[in-house]
Specification:
six-stranded antiparallel β-barrel, binds guanosine-5'-diphosphate, 10 helices, binds magnesium ion, about 375 residues, Translation initiation factor IF-2
Amino acid sequence: SESLQVGELAKKLNKETSEIIKKLMGLGIMATINQELDKEAIELIAADYDVEVEEEIIIDETEFENYEVVDDEKDMQVRPPVVTIMGHVDHGKTTLLDAIRNTKVTAGEAGGITQHIGAYQITNNGKVITFLDTPGHAAFTTMRARGAQVTDITILVVAADDGVMPQTVEAINHAKAAEVPIIVAVNKMDKEAANPDRVMQELTEHGLVSEAWGGDTIFVNVSAIKGDGIDDLLEMINLVSEVEELKANPNRTAIGTVIEAQLDKGRGSVATLLVQSGTLKVGDPIVVGHTFGRVRAMVNDLGRRVKSVGPSTPVEITGLNDVPQAGDQFMVFADEKKARQVGESRSKKQQDAQRKESSKLNLDDLFNQI
Ligand code: GDP
Ligand code: MG
């Protein structure tokens, strides 16, 4: 059959149902006795008892990608916010990201060679903030299309001399759809033509009403080029982050999302992962999208080798058998055999899907020619 209820699986394995439920919880799956388990969950549990599942296992990608993290409230600890910067082209996203990084990172981390890994962390008043510096819109759309949600707070950059433009509206829609709080950074305040009131007025039409006007959206005036207002902006991020009560359990096997990945001539598959819960360690057996392996080495945003990283931390890893995609989710397994089983199964499924897709394309080509 395609699936089994928890109780049925327990019977087949000759185990107590409560034991199976406990194991599932350990895997981040909240289950009751009558819950239908997908093949992946069945395989994971079976593998844990060294039982081979006989029939061919078809793993449902969506089950893996939409896994829910179930942790006990008592294990949850405050974690840094993950911030994405969005806005219209040329409104100053890159300049702002650089300004934040330069003012905060190099001061405290003298000698640290900053490295582009798609995300970085800074410390503001003792509190860590993680910034994604992959192009905001692309990251948002691909990740959300794949069911991943990595952003906690969106900074909407609007140039004070240009106002609301098409990609500003697009960014607002993305953030709203994802229910991510927005902080507006009104940029280029150093410019003569800067008109922050006009920006406020225009954003009101899109449901973002400034606190100054009785709404609940935080607006901060900045000049990314001069570095003005950056501290205020970071303070506001800390404030919103406190309100959101962002938490994760650092004491579990790591799960999270791929920020970016590519093939490196010398190092092979290189992937920047954002750890969303748990702690990722060198040597961990891991499944990343349809790839798998062991974490061979980890390098942080300062280009330093690290041995373990906790929640909300971006880190570049090597050791995967192939290159995963941005937005893929990853999961650490207790042993390498399990990681390999799940990884190979997912890889096979992906290849099958690709084969199907390409034969479909061939047919289409054929029809097009006729
Ligand atoms: P992005 O496309 O949103 O990443 O925008 P960029 O960061 O590349 O900035 C676009 C242009 O605006 C560049 O020429 C920047 O130097 C300029 N710029 C960015 N921020 C400011 C600012 O605060 N003041 C002024 N005057 N120019 C800015
Ligand atoms: Mg840019």
